[in-house]
Amino acid sequence: MTQTHISESQIPNPNELEKAEEEEYDYFDYFYDEPGSEPGTLNIEPDAQPSRIVLIDYDADHAVRKVDVIPKALTPYLGTNTISWMDVQGLGSETILKQVGEIFKLHPLLLEDIVNVPQRPKVEDYNEQLMMIVQMVRSTENDEGFESEQVSFVLGRKYLLTFQEEEIEDCFDIVRERIKGNQGKVRQGGPDYLMYLLLDSIIDGYFPVLEAYGDRIEDLEDELVIKPKTSNLEEIYTVRRELLALRRAIWPLRNVTNILVRGESDLISADVQIYFRDCYDHVIQLLDIVETYRELASSLMDVYLSSMSNKMNEVMQVLTVMSTIFIPLTFLAGLYGMNFKYMPELEGKWSYFVLLGVMLLIAGGLSYFFWRRGWFEPFYSLKKD
Amino acid sequence: MTQTHISESQIPNPNELEKAEEEEYDYFDYFYDEPGSEPGTLNIEPDAQPSRIVLIDYDADHAVRKVDVIPKALTPYLGTNTISWMDVQGLGSETILKQVGEIFKLHPLLLEDIVNVPQRPKVEDYNEQLMMIVQMVRSTENDEGFESEQVSFVLGRKYLLTFQEEEIEDCFDIVRERIKGNQGKVRQGGPDYLMYLLLDSIIDGYFPVLEAYGDRIEDLEDELVIKPKTSNLEEIYTVRRELLALRRAIWPLRNVTNILVRGESDLISADVQIYFRDCYDHVIQLLDIVETYRELASSLMDVYLSSMSNKMNEVMQVLTVMSTIFIPLTFLAGLYGMNFKYMPELEGKWSYFVLLGVMLLIAGGLSYFFWRRGWFEPFYSLKKD
Amino acid sequence: MTQTHISESQIPNPNELEKAEEEEYDYFDYFYDEPGSEPGTLNIEPDAQPSRIVLIDYDADHAVRKVDVIPKALTPYLGTNTISWMDVQGLGSETILKQVGEIFKLHPLLLEDIVNVPQRPKVEDYNEQLMMIVQMVRSTENDEGFESEQVSFVLGRKYLLTFQEEEIEDCFDIVRERIKGNQGKVRQGGPDYLMYLLLDSIIDGYFPVLEAYGDRIEDLEDELVIKPKTSNLEEIYTVRRELLALRRAIWPLRNVTNILVRGESDLISADVQIYFRDCYDHVIQLLDIVETYRELASSLMDVYLSSMSNKMNEVMQVLTVMSTIFIPLTFLAGLYGMNFKYMPELEGKWSYFVLLGVMLLIAGGLSYFFWRRGWFEPFYSLKKD
Amino acid sequence: MTQTHISESQIPNPNELEKAEEEEYDYFDYFYDEPGSEPGTLNIEPDAQPSRIVLIDYDADHAVRKVDVIPKALTPYLGTNTISWMDVQGLGSETILKQVGEIFKLHPLLLEDIVNVPQRPKVEDYNEQLMMIVQMVRSTENDEGFESEQVSFVLGRKYLLTFQEEEIEDCFDIVRERIKGNQGKVRQGGPDYLMYLLLDSIIDGYFPVLEAYGDRIEDLEDELVIKPKTSNLEEIYTVRRELLALRRAIWPLRNVTNILVRGESDLISADVQIYFRDCYDHVIQLLDIVETYRELASSLMDVYLSSMSNKMNEVMQVLTVMSTIFIPLTFLAGLYGMNFKYMPELEGKWSYFVLLGVMLLIAGGLSYFFWRRGWFEPFYSLKKD
Amino acid sequence: MTQTHISESQIPNPNELEKAEEEEYDYFDYFYDEPGSEPGTLNIEPDAQPSRIVLIDYDADHAVRKVDVIPKALTPYLGTNTISWMDVQGLGSETILKQVGEIFKLHPLLLEDIVNVPQRPKVEDYNEQLMMIVQMVRSTENDEGFESEQVSFVLGRKYLLTFQEEEIEDCFDIVRERIKGNQGKVRQGGPDYLMYLLLDSIIDGYFPVLEAYGDRIEDLEDELVIKPKTSNLEEIYTVRRELLALRRAIWPLRNVTNILVRGESDLISADVQIYFRDCYDHVIQLLDIVETYRELASSLMDVYLSSMSNKMNEVMQVLTVMSTIFIPLTFLAGLYGMNFKYMPELEGKWSYFVLLGVMLLIAGGLSYFFWRRGWFEPFYSLKKD
Questions:
Q1: What is the value of pTM for the model shown?
Q2: What residues of chain B, 171 to 210, have a C-beta less than 8 Å from chain A?
Q3: Contact map slice: B 224-283 vs C, CB within 8 A
Q4: How far apart are CA E122 and CA E132, in angstroms?
């Protein structure tokens, strides 16, 4: 697991917060070598899980599953006619990874890409092997942000080698169950069909993650129009940033699936090619969705600005109405509070009442003026909230 | 029918509103499989209509229409030389759909795309069959938003198989009438010409929907310049979102019609290709329109912001003019309201009147200043409203 | 003529205004068939002009012009070796149009595109005929907005058939004069050269229309910086909308001329191809201009917003300066207007004058503060206006 | 010379200003024919300079320069083996231009493009001649805006024909000097190498013009952040407009040089092609720069708006702080200025001083509140300016 | 080193500041020749470092390093079978550079591009030599901005010639160490593998520079939402400008590496091509990152504007709440401060207290009104800061 996104509402202590913030920007921030370092260097991350190998060997008639296999024990399976799926879980044990690399004759650069996560999704054809790297995503538990994990495939003639960052319960389990229970066509297919099944489940995993963003955008829009808050601003920004990250993971998938559809490698049979066409369609749909959400998220900022402008207008109207009505009245009161010796009005018996009448007239006139302009609306609209 | 858009003005009760809001964002939110699910799984939506099959069998001389045909009864029509149009209405009956799939030997992935709506419009060539998926749209009754329905075509040598989400009165009825009444060239053409007629009526159905958005944008612009309201903000956003959804449905249509024009499949005769060229032209025109409206809708947000800014300017001018004129007068009144023992001015016989004169001069001078700047305009403009 | 744009300044009565507004959005709003209608249906608009045919028959040696020719009378000219230009003016007479269609063996879809205006500009090759549809534009008399008219060409081996919406005096007259007077090379050229001459004059007609928008943008910018008004907002929006419409007419012209330059049809001779290259260059120049104006018009909105913001700043500065200077003075005056029995300052002989001095000091200090900040500018700048 | 841009600061008299404004928008506003005019018409502008021809004839051993050559005198040089550079300066003499056209057998459309300036840069291949049109730019003397001049090249087997709008001292002089002094490789090269030299110097001439815009943008940004003014708004708009014009001149240059690099014409030798590759690189660099500046200029508008918003915030803070502190104090003063008969506080010996204390407390409390919020900043920041 | 970016916080004296500002805009401002200057002219910058040559000659068995070699001493190494890496450090000595040019038979334009820095990254194939120009970047010490240096490669059959602007400790040292210590595969590889190693370390050097911008954007966003300042505005602008500069350097790298991957030159062996594929992947990742950061930086401006708008709203709310509550009270106080002879209320024993009660009611009512609207929030939120 490369990232953990921790929402504001469930932060347990400052240290964890620190860590969370450090990681916040890490969505697919590609791994890079120290400038000048030897090509092919494996950078084992300190917090990487130790590697363990799970082997599933099957054909139409049988299926065997072995856990915690040592690399050397894989050699016999390379020559057999059965399909072997070797799943390396955890990228923390350099020795195991290097041994696997030697047994399967992996190019040093290939092994480097598998271990130094995350890499940009890609397919590379090494004649007898087809290497594919993709990013798997899943929603975090609190439904804010998402987690990602790099999954690397090495497809051989009779085997499929996969590398995962974590030993976690995921959508691969369903495929394992299907092999075990001989459900569907998986046991009839080759390693290419198995790779399709795994890739398909990874791609399908993007949909619920994206849908969660659709819901957040919808919620945000409702909030923004009714009652914009500063925290909305931050959330719009976060949604935009995370959609950018998702887009960065999905765009290269388009290329990856397209290469598989064109079927330039003979490791993929014509039958399975049609299935990869289905993957390609799904990736295009993902791109459609991510671009739509990006546009909506971007126009949310306009909505926010306009909504703030609205709110300020209301504040100003209240101030202006109150000030403008009372300003002339206060002036008149001040006028007759002056201490001049000779002010004829002060002596009149009804002067005070006449002045009160004049004040009422002025206040009424101005109120009518503002009422006609609709500037009393902010006073009424209070009750609605 | 995939969506119902309910306008604010005619909301009957909170429950329905809830439902409407839930659905609001659903415009072409593509269907996706549960990650890890078996490829080819049919997901029957709980509210899907039960399927029924309407068969129209015709050639230049005769035309027969049969309603509620059972799938098995379709088999004889596959071998005949007459054109058979099998229209499956409603996607709710898994058994019927699977039987149809078996009779017509549909690829499991093809059947999955037909049933798990909505899918992105596409054409796929299965040698003996040409599959096309498109989205049909129609305006809702209250002219706000639109409804969409997926229509899937499977074109064979002598038959056309169509799948619709609903059994509803639509533009296909006109084609049915034309077959019945032997109007136009439909009875002389093959299933490819029939597919053209149906596709053409689907594409033509987009025009009035788009035109309604043109009208809404025009109305909005008029309102915004004269009297911007908060609800406009929401409507602009809604128009933008719905235009995005329409664009998402029309863009792939371009590709779909282009493939048909190039006529790579021999199921489409050269004569009919020219007709598909017409479809292609119409799709390009739709794209022209949708892009234009999107640009206009996007510039409406600018107009809104500018209009709000205008309004605030007016409010501020009123406040500033009133405050600034009375502030020095009120000060002067306060000054001569002080109770100092020795204030020579207070004793003068004409002091009071002199002061009144001075106040008049100040008020006049400031008024002239503001009049020259045009800041009295908001006071006049009231009358216009 | 498809549109009439009526400027605000010369609106004669409300009814006409209504009509103008109805039409305002019609710039190239493509014609569309009723969904489900028979392909090839001619939709004669109720206000379309009755059709009349003008025939000009010429070769290097002679030139004949016949007005109000009936369709049948055209047949003899199809077989001759002279160049025949048949100009159908007005699209209101279905019988005439259908007869012309039969005589020239026009494809029903072709005739539909000619009659159901407006269509998107395009070229289509029907082997023995080359069909081209373009939009001709001209400025309205009041120089606001523009009018458009669809011109359709059908180029044959020895004839050119043109369709215009109106019988109006236009740039084609100059070409007619040139044929009559045997000026230039027109009588030496074939119908392809004639088509070039007409297309060239249509394309050249876009330049003055676009130039008028350049002038309006320039005027708007001058106004906006000096004295922004609400009506400017509306005008910017209108200019943007109309430029969008023009762009929609010019973009497909690029494709149209490019097809003619590539000369895939043998109806266009190599000599004339070079001339079409000139047309292509002009269309590219038009696109250059329209895109530049669109960018300028779009940045005008920014200028407007900034200008409004400027204006509000000035208003606020006036309010703030006046309020802030008098607020402490008014407080002091109020303080010594209190009626406490024991207020030692009130008794002093010079107290009043000391206070006045203090007030002067405060007012002076604050004024200096504001002067240093430049907030007095809005007071000076009045005189400039 | 097509344009003169006159800065605001050095306007001598209203008439010139008028002229300057008229021309302001003319940057590369392409020349267009009167709609319907005869193709090949030469439009001599009334203020065009009379044409004169300067001939330079050279080979490795000798170099001759003749001024004010009459067109007929050019004929003998067409047949020789020496390189002849005919430079036509000024496009005002129709006779001379037509004679040149006849001698060199220029296509009428080619001559039209040369004379009717400005045209979009382009290369056209007429088999025995290669025609190239480009725009030369130079900064105006006051470093605001730029001037442009069209330079047309006709490259033949043994000659180079150039057309310039003006007889002015320009970068071509350096090339002339080099031919005269036999510096560099110019005398060893053919007319293609000469064309490269001239094109290279034209392209290099864009760099200082663009750099001046870089400086203006930098200056503007500094001003905007410190002290935004209304005139900045106008200048940003002008810079954006002029960069748009430059981009319009440079984009087609990319195509022009690319065609020369691909060397499809045999008039350009392989050796010289490598040199044109250098031109192409420079054009790409120009595009890089112009796009960068356009982005920067566009983000300047955001900076302006934000800066205005900043300024308004400061104004509002000053008003709010002053008003809010004094409003309760003034109320209290007013309260004890009332003339009720029974107001117990008025009688107390220390009442006045107690009230003063209360007022101090209130003022202090509010001041602390505002100080904590940082709203006193605008008061301090004055001193910095 | 081409640029030095000096942060505001550590400016030592005005002169240096001047210099820094002069250079500020220089990021990759391409070098250009004086218009009209002779092609192939070497422009030695006055502050360029004197050139010195470091030679490393090696094969699998031995490795020799010579410092300050004179150009002529390089000749013998051209004929040997060992790999020779000639590293020219500093571009200040014209004689040395020209001698190197002669010995290696460099094309004058090639030498010009190497010396006249900076140039746009590119690859050019001169048959027996492959020339590549790239820009190396490193963060400045204060982590604001970055420095760049042009590195030029000339790859021959058995040698690699490199040109650097400076003799500085950089990532090349690690490669030198590896040759010296015979680590990795470098001594087994040819000059093409050496070029890959150097290019790889240059590309990897972009990652930490970009990452620093990611951090700055993150910091900016945090600041903007909490407490926007004017200096943020400037910093956003700077970040955008510098990201534009980086993008300008990385985009052509994509083309450069792509050409190397396609391996059109036979100077690059098939084995090493796979390694260049790795470089290409890294460049694509860089582009991904730079585009993401550019989008984020651009949306920061929106955040800034919105945040300013927020702040102003708060200021206005404070002013409005305070003014509106006290305005009617002050009016009432003024009313009973009038000096009319006949004001019945003044005589009442409890009048004063009744009035105080009324005032309390008014203040309470208005406060409740504002509290309901949430306009008291800015008063609370102070404490949070």
A1: 0.85
A2: none
A3: 225, 274-275, 277-278, 281-282
A4: 6
